[in-house]
Amino acid sequence: MHFDYVCCAEGGGGTHAGVALGAMLYMPQTKTVGLMVDSDPFEVITTNIMQKTAKLLELDFTPTAENVHLIDMCGPGYAIPSPEGNAAIRMMAENEGLFLDPVYTGKAFAGLVKMAREGQFKPTDNVLYLYSGGAGGLFAIDIELD
Question: Is 145 domain-assigned?
């Protein structure tokens, strides 16, 4: 199966780093996008994780910041629900029966929706959204889904 894009939440850098490095190795035509739910400098953090992992695995290339694609979806701050994230949580629950959380996957999915609405994907693109869990966060934070 071919994916043109693989998108995931970017909250610490590890998931995106692993997905991006794996794509570089096994799906070099695929663009990976980290949908940032925090305002940390992920162009540095994620690149560093990728470089250290590539060295550990003795790969014959060194990832650079150009391999890290980011979209800022932090909203009002880390662990603070955003209106876009809340709308994405509601959309996914109503249409797919899948519950996203307001800290990571809800904000990240809102980024995917934003990218689609802005025309960043072609109608023929095959896009994978990596759902990395976190539904327990729905019950830890007071959010408005109206």
Answer: no
Instruction: Write down the pTM of the prediction.
Output: 0.88
In a domain, 10, yes or no: yes
Taking the C-alpha atoms of residue 65 and residue 13, their distance in angstroms, rounded to an integer, is: 13
| Token pair of 139 as six digits | 């019950």
Q: In total, how many domains does the chain have?
A: 1
- Containing structural domain, residue 96: 5-138
Q: Please report the beta strands in the chain, taking only residues with DSSP state E, as ranges in sequence order.
A: 5-10, 31-36, 69-72, 127-130
Burial of residue 93 (number of CB atoms within 10 Å: 0-12, 13-18, 19+): middle
pLDDT tens profile 114-129: 999 999 999 999 999 9
Query: In the numeric block, which tokens belong to residue 32?
Result: 């990976």
Please, are residues 63 and 54 in contact by the beta-carbon 8 Å criterion? yes
Least confident of 70-74, 121-125, 132-136, 139-143: 139-143
